[in-house]
Amino acid sequence: MSDSIVDLANRMFVGPLWPASILICLLVVYTILAIVGLVDFGFDVPEVDLDVPDVGVDLPDGEMISVDADLLQGLGGAAIRWTNFGRIPIVLWGGIFSLAFWGISYWLWHSFDSDRYSPDWLPSILLSVRNFVIATGITKAITQPMLGYFVDPPSYDERRMIGGTCEITTSEATPEFGQAKFRTNAAPLLLNVRTDGAHIPKGTEVRIVGF
């Protein structure tokens, strides 16, 4: 029995398996604590703060290169959003990622990598990064169908729409008839619109003043 445990530990804690094995051990401990009631599973979707501070790099000649924080924030936010991190409960996302990270690391090391690489620091770090990227892709694929259960569709009520703009899509909009598309982060909304007296041609951007 003890020999089996030692053999399992030797197979788990080697080379690029170290980060994944530590992560899976933390997941097991957290799950046990949650089962006995010492911590909460926390199946609430958190709000992820993606604020990025201004960054500057000093050059030898004293010049300053300013990095556009909005661009960095947009890229970082898009990358995190792509992984579905923060869009479903962190515990669920972390559990799926941990299992995928450990499974990929274990399988690749004992099936392929151990014959090609030594379990030294540099190869292990590079292989861990590769495994991390693969596990992130797997987590994305698994969690994508779950979004409908945790992400509420945006609501478009009077407060949100008044003051916004839309584009006339019919040949014209009149006080009696007209349609326009209201742009959203997903598919645009098709609205029935009425003007306050003018006849507005297709393609015109108009402002919503009543709802």
From TrEMBL:
Transmembrane feature ranges: 20-39, 90-109
Assigned keywords, A-Z: Membrane, Transmembrane, Transmembrane helix
Keyword Transmembrane annotated: yes
Protein name listed in UniProt: Putative membrane protein
Protein source organism: Rhodopirellula maiorica SM1
Species lineage: Bacteria, Pseudomonadati, Planctomycetota, Planctomycetia, Pirellulales
